[in-house]
UniProtKB/TrEMBL annotation:
Lineage: Bacteria, Pseudomonadati, Pseudomonadota, Alphaproteobacteria, Sphingomonadales
Leader peptide range in chain numbering: none
Top-level taxonomic group: Bacteria
Originating species: Sphingomonas ginkgonis
Gene3D superfamilies: Dihydrodipicolinate Reductase, domain 2, NAD(P)-binding Rossmann-like Domain
Gfo/Idh/MocA-like oxidoreductase N-terminal domain boundaries: 2-125
Domain GFO/IDH/MocA-like oxidoreductase: 137-268
InterPro entries per the UniProt record, alphabetical: Gfo/Idh/MocA-like_OxRdtase_N (IPR000683), Gfo/Idh/MocA_oxidoreduct (IPR051317), GFO_IDH_MocA-like_dom (IPR055170), NAD(P)-bd_dom_sf (IPR036291)
SUPFAM superfamilies per UniProt: Glyceraldehyde-3-phosphate dehydrogenase-like, C-terminal domain, NAD(P)-binding Rossmann-fold domains
Protein name (database record): Gfo/Idh/MocA family oxidoreductase
GO molecular function, one term: nucleotide binding
Amino acid sequence: MGMVGGGPGAFIGPIHCLAAEMDREIELVAGAFSSDAGRSRAAGETYRIDPSRAYPSLEAMIEAESARADGIEFVAIVTPNHLHLPAARAALAAGLHVMSDKPATATLAEARELKAAVDTSGLHYRLTYTYTGYPLVRHARELIAGGEIGAVRKLVVEYPQGWLAQPIEQEGSKQAGWRVDPAQAGLGGCIGDIGVHAFNLAEFVAGQPVTELLADLAAVVPGRRLDDDCSVLLRFANGARGVLLASQISVGELNGLRIRVYGERGGLDWRQEEPNSLTLHRLDGGTELVRTGTAAVGPLGTAATRTPGGHPEGYLEAFANLYRDFAALLRGEGEAALVPGIDLGLRSMAFVDTAVAASRDGSGWVSLTV
């Protein structure tokens, strides 16, 4: 693996590295970690790679690695959103597969351009919608697909955070700075940062695409140009109704992603901050608590579990599951649907674009078309 982004002060770059290498099927061997050559070399030292393989640019990495017998086979993109398209396009053009942090691009137009590049290349392109890697998320998907709760009627997905409740971007926070900057984040703020996670999770678990939405987005903190709080009503293809709430100004919240799905005969409830438990409600009033690492978990969830029950697995393991599945794809094995690809990336960008425009224009209910 070669990485673009993830230099000094980055959060997600080290996470990608830890996740990719967890199962010893992937090794980070090169990177263009920063546009500053010195900072890129410094990052290479922290990642413990050969100093000669810490490059000053993606172009330099591609050129040098292409000339090596042991050169990189794919590129992990862990940059701010506005760099996703050029990095992916360059990697694909060089014959390299791509694993990208979400969202796919900064805008819907860019996502369409990227899809064309992916389709033309014939290479693998995948996105780290991390929460689809959790064992009990995959188990919930399997339960719903198998009819365990009957036809889905209602879905509520919420993703509250509180870390942007104050304008910390004005105090020099690097992580906040690019997320509230349209030039780097793209059209959406909160909705593009965590709203796409909630949207992807809803469709992944329910097995139903969203067809219509009604959006109310706001920049609550004075001076912000991008939304930091979002409320979106959803309609699914099978007629089910949904609610999506995403917020980064909810004081006291950390990473409160939660999904509840209600069907004709039962309901499911899963929380990211307590990921090793899934609550299954029955029509007769009974409630079952499903735990990871137990016989109650189906094949999909079991395959994503590494330890016996009672040994907590969380964010890093879920992230690693996506990389393990990606490695299987590169070997010509594995189930492609388990690792989100360009089509789901395009859907997520259509969701952001549609919601932002509908909220801005007061359009009411609008169709979600890709």
